[in-house]
Amino acid sequence: MASALVLMASWAAVLVAAAALDVSPVPFHAGYTPLFGDDNLVLSADGRSVRLKLDKRTGSGFVSKSAYHHGFFSASIQLPDDYTAGVVVAFYLSNGDVFPQNHDEVDFELLGNRRGHGWRVQTNIYGNGSTSRGREERYLLPFDPTSRPHSYAVSWTPTAIVFYVDGAPVREAVRVPGIGGDFPSKPMSVYATIWDGSSWATDGGRFRVDYAHAPFAADFSHLALRGCVAAADDHQLTDDAECQVAVMTDEPAVMTPAKRDAMRRFRRRYMIYTVCHDRVRYNGTVFPECDVVDGAERDRFHEWGESKHIVPHGRKDKQQATAAVDGRPSTWPAGALRAD
């Protein structure tokens, strides 16, 4: 009985810690520091938002002051409009500076496009330097990301990673036994950058950054930065076991049936590529975390992982999507991904 009471008291303490996990936005200098770009990084007067710019001289970026071992990380981002082909705006976790040979990474990459064609969103996961086994997915957006800020968030726990757009889950990567070291497991810092991805970002590199339209500016605000820090930090839970439970029981980490239904609806309507249905890129290999038992879902995708049915916005996009039905697009070489 005494041991049961102790156990109940310990669990109650854990629940109090879980409830204490604060995911409210932080001022920029409370959680972040400039990474590169000099005056291409412009802090707002109130210190709570920042503009990242890309011009012919340089891109820009910032990084969290602490590294985190799991947590919830979010930013509201307003993207540049007009011609943005080749431009990449990224919000991601990484430890490449500490583990250059076996780094972990969890990515949101927002991919620009030519005039009249919408931005794309790419998610990706690397663990233990598994860059040769990219786990990309790409989606259209159900809104105009250039008209106002929209939120992009990652919940990372010891058992799963969930990507959110405007509070709705769009991807869940579960740490199944077969994934092994490919699941990100080492402490990571949080990054935000804008840079020139001309070689791949838009239509496999066919459309490049045109600096006649520069500077390209992305605005970051509502920076939520809460997790289990890898070093002492007065603003975080100091007991790692309590913090890990707090992260795992926090609302973004708990995938209810209703949230999974919403995620499936988003993916049916907006996912244009998934590595889980790409039989060409890795010679038929299916990653262990991929849920491919749904034959109906698999039938909605070409053997190279692109959707058969989701038509990107824009007249030229529709022509290309139609042409792709009967065969692999000539603009998308083996081993590469198309942003269109």
Give an overview of the whole structure.
The chain is of the alpha+beta class and 340 residues long. The chain has one domain (16-253): Jelly Rolls. 17% of the residues lie in helices and 31% in strands. The strands form two sheets. It has a nine-stranded antiparallel β-sheet. Strands 2-3-14-5-10-11-12 form a seven-stranded antiparallel β-sheet. A hairpin with a 3-residue loop joins strand 10 (150-156) and strand 11 (160-165). The longest helix has 18 residues, at 2-19. The protein is globular and about 50 Å long. Mean pLDDT is 85; it is low at 1-20, 233-238 and 315-340.
Structure described in brief:
With 340 residues, this protein is an alpha+beta fold.
List keywords for this structure.
Jelly Rolls; single chain; alpha+beta; cell wall biogenesis/degradation; xyloglucan:xyloglucosyl transferase activity; 340 residues; 16 strands; seven-stranded antiparallel sheet; globular; EC 2.4.1.207; disordered N terminus; disordered C terminus; hydrolase; nine-stranded antiparallel sheet
